[in-house]
Specification:
Layout (H helix, E strand, L loop, with lengths): L14 H11 L2 H29 L4 H26 L1
Helix pairs in contact: 2-3
Amino acid sequence: MTLRPNADHRLGGRGVAVWDAIVFCARSGNLRRTVRIALVVGVVLTVINQSGAFTSGHITVATWIRSGLNFVVPFLVSNAGLLSGRR
């Protein structure tokens, strides 16, 4: 049993390309780099955007969601950069 999708996958033949992109981004060197970028940029964005909520003590669920997205977005963008440089 293989986890690699075939060309007839539901993505209209793009399944292999998507799977290859996931495998490429999950390589230890690439993952280490993108996670490091996400952590640094996420902390900076959270301090800039949410420091008022944290210092005032008015933290809501929305504050935590926004703070989490401050880490997810740079992770996705850095992976997109990896993939665009791969072409």
